[in-house]
Amino acid sequence: MAGGSSNGRSLEQTPTWAVAVVCFVLVLISIIIEHIIHLIGKWLKKRNKRALYEALEKIKSELMLLGFISLLLTVGQSLISDICIPEKVANTWHPCNEDPPEPGENDGSGTDEGNHDRRRLLMVSDFGKSVRRSLAAAGSTNSSCPTGKVPFVSSDGIHQLHILIFVLAVSHVLYCILTMALGRLKMRSWKRWEEETKTIEYQFSHDPERFRFARETSFGRRHLSFWTKTPILMWIVCFFRQFVRSVPKVDYLTLRHGFIMAHLAPQSHVNFDFQKYINRSLEEDFKVVVGISPPIWFFAVFSLLFNRHGFHSYMWLPFIPLIIILLVGTKLQVIITKMGLRIQERGEVVKGVPVVQPGDDLFWFNRPRLLLYLINFVLFQNAFQLAFLVWTLYEFGRDSCFHKRTEDLVIRITMG
């Protein structure tokens, strides 16, 4: 799509069979993808996976939104590239231009070629058999802008934005699927614990008529210690616990018993499958996690804005999702510990299994769903970081200014 290309033929100069073949392939691929999504939806309905079906519909709406953005870019490409801005403004906030030319430096003298070299954003140079691609020019050679001005965004830049949107859509869908798969894999080990609750040994060890000290129960030994008396120590211990085993067996069984006591009859613990209930809850929460809200879109634009040279965004931007997810994991551990402290506050002696009492006041701002929104934010930001990495490698190559430092690639990959 570069302007001034010798191969820039219009459709009136293109064979009709070539146009028909391209249209046929695009339509065929679109129909196949739509049919696959339709089959997945029918399969989910057949298995009564209502929440997952709604999540699939939300993914389809997000893909439609990305497609609509791409369509607007296509329709408005000429309008955007016809907008002219002064070179002084165009020479600011470049992602890779380490030494932009000073205003008035391009005065038509013999240094014009050197200034153009510093100003261009897309350069292809051959070193033997390898081709290195770096960042594109602010304007194309056939720009309609007058002297001293350049296009707001060139046609090449808009075309590259198309590719970024496509890669973002693919990476977001893959991250959604990966998130769901990891959630189900995590809960697979809980199935064994759920089967154990139906055995005679479990019913004997959890005799409801048995009196014990709260601190001597398995749940008490895990969560009632000297470090729980100091909030700072509690947060430090809970921070490291999320790396060892986020949901141990004793926590699962205690939370299961607390849920039954709060919502069901005490005799229901034999037939109630808490693991299946959590599985259905995961599907319900997945509808929230896969969505892309306006604040998340604005943060993506913020990430693009501050991806300029000198801000070192690769050193701090990928760490924002990491910090958030570590805070969420620590907060969940703190919540379970505080529920254990509430058991001790009600009395030193407990009858049967300790009964935990969850409450909205244990969460930030009394809003449990805030944790879901934070996980949603992390999911999209991980997808965005991966898409940006793949896009820059594809468009500009390994040796571009985006990847001058090896730590840039390491940070983007490992943090995601």
TrEMBL record:
GO terms for biological process: defense response. It is a multi-pass membrane protein. InterPro entries: Mlo. Keywords: Calmodulin-binding, Membrane, Pathogenesis-related protein, Plant defense, Transmembrane, Transmembrane helix. GO terms for cellular component: membrane. GO terms for molecular function: calmodulin binding. Residues 95-116 are annotated as: Disordered. The keyword Membrane applies. It comes from the Eukaryota. Pfam families: Mlo. The chain crosses the membrane at residues 17-41, 62-80, 161-182, 288-307, 314-336, 370-394. It is found in: Membrane. Belongs to the MLO family. The C-terminus contains a calmodulin-binding domain, which binds calmodulin in a calcium-dependent fashion. May be involved in modulation of pathogen defense and leaf cell death. This is MLO-like protein. It comes from Rubroshorea leprosula.
